[in-house]
Amino acid sequence: MNSSETLLATDLAGSVQTPCGIRPLVFRFPGDPTQFGSSPSNPPTGRERRHTLEEMQHLRMEGRVTQMNEAHLVPIDHVALFARPSFLLAYELICGEPFPWQSFHPVGVMASIDPTKEKERFPQILSDRPWSLHNQVLAALGSTHDIHNLLAQARTKIHVRGEHTACLYLKYPKDSEKRLNALDLMKEIGWLEIFCTKGQAPDLLFESYEFTGLSLYERGGEGRLESLFATGIHPLAPQTKFQDFLDHVRRFKDKLDYRHTCKSCRCASLVGDISMSDVAIIQLGEIIRMANEEQTPHTHGKKNLDRVTIAPVRRSRQTV
Amino acid sequence: MQTPTSDTKIHGRQAHEIIPLATVIRYIPLDNVMKSGFFWNSHDLESNAAPEIARKCGKIQKTIPRGRYYYAGFADEQYGDIAFAYGPDHESGERGSAHPFDTGALILGGLHPFFTSPPPLHHTCQFVVDTRIDLAHWRNLFKRFIDLCYHGDVFPYLNGDRPPNPSGCWNVLPFPSCHPGNSAPQAWTWEILIHSQPAVEKGLIAWSSYDDIFNDMVMTLNDFNGNTPDFPAERINACIPLLQVCYQPVGTEHPCRVVQQKIIHWVQAQTKR
After folding, report:
1. d(CA B72, CA B74)
2. CB pairs under 8 A between A and B
3. Which of A83, A117, B160, B187 would bridge with B176, disulfide CB 3.0–4.6 Å?
4. What is the tens place of the pLDDT at every residue in B169-182?
5. Do A227 and B216 touch (CB under 8 A)?
6. Is A174 found in the same domain as A102?
């Protein structure tokens, strides 16, 4: 089989219980008896499994594969990017616009949604937010390259918007409840970004982990930061050193300090007290637009923030 | 001409001595981890099929105890999102058993010579009992299996190839590996069952999962680092080296394929002089 050959994709491999992720597809192979399996590797190995329809139903029931609402004919090298309501809504609240599916037309997948559980990963961002806008898990099917590009764009937007919120904690007294909540919010912005970080270049990893890293550093010092480095960064980039990450996080703190103290570089709460009404979303977009128009602060040798044009804010239609 | 054996074909350590054990689990959501207070303990790694098999085999249930199931040298992607591969240290000092086929697939009617639906349970269960190998002896018998059925070369086995010489495998019982009707690797892949509960990090060579699952684990560990009594810092600290040293990034591959490659490279490295 060559990569341009198309097959009917019916399922995503594995579960879709994290907020957002990429999964190989499970295809229905032509022939008799009809069989299902993952995209064959090259060269094929004897370990590649084929399943009958009966076996597939068993795998679906056990949550080892996740069925799409409809089967789709796609090239065999395509994969799926899935996103749960928690991720889509958190993205919207941070970035002020719907997740940028671009030309992808996401499809629904058969996965249960429990609103209470959905909020577990982003409790600060999603507290008291309704779920009416997002009522199913969506998946975009595409080439690895295109999906990585899509995620890279999303990651950049989260990062830019996050910087306008992350310094909020500096205005609250140390150990105050508000400061701790603001640190949690900063940490969650970092988690949101990390779900979109597909590259393994150390610079990108450091940048993606700087929100969460600073939050943990502020609360628990170097010990917490070292734990984050050991679990999150080092396994993906063994050549990196903790001291470099520590220096990076300290520089990031300086940058937020500057934004906080510089009159023309104020911090802006992107999610604070804003409700999910249409009006509020437009206000949110306006805040972001204003924040982006501000002068980019001194970055201590780091490159300036990317400027991202804010598209007109409107309701997401893909889940209606 | 005499067939080369694993003794003569490999260098350094012998393949049967070091062939890794692989196990695959489904992702455990954050909610479950918090409430139960465990993280990759025995419940997570226990086979979901085991209770069903025990139920089906009824009267001889005692001979099919629950525990942690592994395949010798094979991370099977049908079982979940997270794959682990262990060196022989993992089983040292443990009790358990082994079979030269997947007992679950056999009992559930998926393998010849019991490929029927429903299978004749008594005969099938008795066959499983009769073919049981003690954990302490399985590696020596596995060597014999590789010598006879794979001409002493373990790598076709690791690749999932059918035994090229199946009739030479066994001549006493109708093993699934000899049956021409079996095409799935479950028929010739060895299954290992450890009755006790070795620590998840004991003898670990490699583990892998999808990026988002890896990230979610990182978040879980760092969100609750020592903050909750059900999620003690000691448990987290024990898992950190596991995450740090043994993780195999997946890209968009299935984690089992990544771990399978790691197993093959590891065996190559270990057996090379």
Report:
1. 6
2. 121
3. B187
4. 665 667 888 888 88
5. no
6. no
User: Is there a single domain that holds both residue A64 and residue A137?
Assistant: yes
Q: Which residues, other chains included, contact A138 with Cβ-Cβ below 8 Å and sequence gap of 6+?
A: A82, A83, A88, A106, A107, A108, A109, A318, A319
User: Among the listed ranges A117-121, A209-213, B166-170, which one has the minimum average pLDDT value?
Assistant: B166-170
The number of folded domains in chain A is: 2
Q: Are residues A261 and A283 in the same domain?
A: yes
Asked if residue A71 belongs to a domain, the reply is: yes
Residue A77 lies in a domain: yes
Domain stops at, among A116, A144, A172: A144
Which chain B residue is nearest to residue A78, measuring alpha carbons? B252
Kindly state whether residues A69 and A162 are assigned to the same domain: no
Backbone φ and ψ for A257, nearest 5 degrees, come out as: -55, -45
For the stretch A76-132, pLDDT in tens is 999 999 999 999 999 999 998 999 998 999 999 999 998 888 888 899 999 877 766
Helix axes A85-95, A177-194, angle to 10 degrees: 110
Chain B contacts in chain A segment 15-54 (CB below 8 A): 15, 17-24, 38, 41, 45-49, 51
- Tell me: ipTM over 0.90: no
Bond into A98 cis (ω within 30): no
| Assigned domain for A268 exists | yes
Greatest alpha-carbon pair distance for chain B in Å reads 66
pLDDT at A202 over 70: yes
**How many whole angstroms from its chain centre is CA A268?**
21
What are the tens digits of pLDDT across the range B235-254?
777 778 888 899 999 877 89
In chain B, what are the domain boundaries?
6-271
Whether residue B27 is predicted with pLDDT greater than 60 in this model: the reply is yes
Structure token pair of residue A189:
């912005």
A109 burial type by CB count under 10 A (0-12 exposed, 13-18 middle, 19+ buried)? buried
Shared domain for A231 and A263, answered yes or no, is yes
List of chain A residues whose C-beta atoms are within 8 Å of the C-beta of residue B26: 14-15, 62-64
A253, A169: one domain = yes
Query: Sorting pLDDT into bands at 50, 70 and 90, what band is B10?
Result: very low
- Residue B48: the pLDDT is 56
Q: Which pLDDT belongs to residue B226?
A: 54
Task: Give yes or no: residues A164 and A257 share one domain.
Answer: yes
Range of the domain at A122: 6-144
A121 contacts B216? CB cut-off 8 A: yes
* This prediction's pTM: 0.85
Mean pLDDT of A12-31: 92
Tell whether A152 lies on the interface with B, counting CB pairs under 8 A.
no
B193, two tokens: 């069952």
Query: What are the chain B neighbours of A231 within 8 Å (beta carbons)?
Result: 217-218, 221-222, 240, 243-244
> Could you tell me if residue A60 is inside a domain?
yes
**Beta carbons of A232 and A209 less than 8 angstroms apart:** yes
CB of A117 within 8 Å of a chain B CB? The answer is yes
Is A120 touching B (CB cutoff 8 A)?
A: yes
| Residues A162, A127 share a domain | no
